[in-house]
């Protein structure tokens, strides 16, 4: 294990740029890979502070430009984790501003060909990553572990995704494809208990042969958004449910737009007893291309509000306030660090959904989200 960088390989140079924006779970900081003008070789990390009256950005350039495939992740203490890949090694450091320059604390490296950072942890102090192999996937703690990266678990199968289900970063939902040695099968979301050496339990089991992937979960209300082909074989549909509820997953027509891909990216927090009243923001992309736009939706309302995205939106990123105002980070020539705020429309009377909204009665799970004891902060009853 080492923290010394080496010359990037052609494979790392070919990675697509990380042009989005990653936010801490409490939305106090964000980080992204920015660029000086239109120069293709001028990538540098940038930290945004979001919890003041106005957002502001702090550049964190190193002695040389970053590769476009470099990933960054903000911590709630204001530092930024940076992940660089070089010659089969995954290197990690913490960056922080030091007056006119950038301070860097090397954290070490993981020896593997492929590694992906997980979304920011709920505690905001640690960072985690997945290293997928042919037969199993390693879960690493790459920041906050003390002396370099620490291997926490080996999960059978090839895992992707990553949704946190507990505030202490103990329960992690992963989308797992069973290995050929285990007989293969469709992708299913499982829960990995990091305090028990990676103990695995099922989470989404909507139908035996369905592909079920968890996309988003809110720790206050237990509301979840997922993809599954259970209601329409061969087509991944967006559905919603509540962790611990005995009600089946629902697949409303309001979450289905013709020739469009919908990806949820933010849920309104603070609605502990009202999962059906939570506002949800979705990134909407047309199959014909063009700029994406926004979908604003509530489970209880049964309709989708479609809204134009602000110019320069860092697409797919944003967060809700407790009172339902959506903040979207954007970058333009006149505003290199901006937040557009969009109030959630007032609820309308619920429209009757077609009966197709639920998965077929056979075979469906009576408890499609069998994680009744998940320690979701603030949630005290099922909905």
Count of individual helical segments = 1
Rg of Cα set:
21 Å
Main pleated-sheet profile: 4 strands, antiparallel
The amount of beta strand, in percent, is: 35-45%
Q: How are the strands ordered across the major sheet? A: 1-2-3-4
Q: Indicate the percent of residues in helices.
A: under 10%
Distance between the termini: 47 Å
The backbone outline, from C-alpha atoms, is globular
Q: Mean pLDDT, nearest integer? A: 86
| SSE run | HEEEEEEEEEEEEEEEEEEEEEEEEEE
> In terms of per-residue confidence, which ranges show pLDDT below 50 for 5 or more consecutive residues?
1-16, 356-383
Strands, count: 26
SSE class: mainly beta
Notes on the structure:
Residues 1-16 and 356-383 have low confidence and may be disordered. It is globular and about 55 Å long. 1% of the residues lie in helices and 40% in strands. The protein has one helix and 26 strands. The strands form seven sheets. A four-stranded antiparallel beta sheet has the order 1-2-3-4, with no helix packed on it. It has a four-stranded antiparallel beta sheet with strand order 5-6-7-8, with no helix packed on it. A four-stranded antiparallel beta sheet has the order 9-10-11-12, with no helix packed on it. The chain has 383 residues and is mainly beta. It has one helix at 10-13; strands at residues 22-23, 29-35, 43-49, 56-59, 71-74, 80-86, 89-98, 101-111, 116-117, 127-132, 136-143, 150-156, 158-164, 171-177, 188-193, 199-202, 212-217, 223-228, 237-242, 260-267, 280-286, 293-297, 304-307, 319-320, 325-330, 338-343.
